Amino acid sequence: MAWSCSSSSNKGLVSNLENARIFQNSRVREAMLGVDRKHYCPRNPYQDSPQLIGYNVTISAPHMHAMCLDALADHLKPGSKALDVGSGTGYLTACMAIMVGFSGKAVGVEHVPQLVQQSISNIKADGKEYLLDSKSLIMIEGDGRKGIAEHGPYDAIHVGAAAPTIPQSLIDQLKPGGRLIIPVGNIMQELLQVDKSLDGNIKQKSITSVRYVPLSELLDSCCAVSNLYKLISRIKWAIEQDKIRNHMFHTCSVISSSYT
Prior knowledge:
Blueprint: H1 10-19, H2 26-34, E1 51-54, E2 57-59, H3 62-72, E3 81-85, H4 91-100, E4 105-110, H5 113-125, H6 129-133, E5 137-141, E6 154-159, H7 168-172, E7 174-185, E8 189-196, E9 202-210, H8 218-258
Parallel strand pairs: 3-4, 3-6, 4-5, 6-7
Antiparallel strand pairs: 1-2, 7-8, 8-9
Helix pairs in contact: 2-4
């Protein structure tokens, strides 16, 4: 289903997602048409699969973005407040900002400082600088697991990476009547819809099974990248050692054969 939604253009991608009934809300369509993915995803922007964006971070597949926006659509109305945890290159936060309008506010929080700056540049390149100027779209560097309390409480919260359990801080910052969409689990993950009733009670249900990268802090990501580079170096060293051994074996064989 998801792979068949890929296209060669943003319009084609959105049309395919709608035809596949990944989303049904017309406001989701308008938001995704208004935010061209090519400005936020440098590689294969219209391919319906996750893509690497650097710093050991990926941007979610378009069908997941569409699914999450559709689940949050009734809570992303003009005047609403929205929080995007793990905002990455800023794509989904920009979509949320369009849906909540100038009277609302969409806050993106990302723990990689370079991605925060890149997301701001992406939003400007997409012609959405007016959202930043009006403060209806704000990009912040921070630990998204703690939320951003000073701009809350939020009508809608989206989390773009998997947590072992639902962070209590995000539940606390969810407005009564609000909705949180978050992938939860380690190896086996579920995309959960968490609703807070007007009297503060929490109700949750599973939307679908998913596979997301883990929600982490900067140190975790840096360590992962560092370990990857170390592994690559060790592999290169092993290859060189193998070449040396093969060369020595070949040389010894030649010398040995010359004496026979």
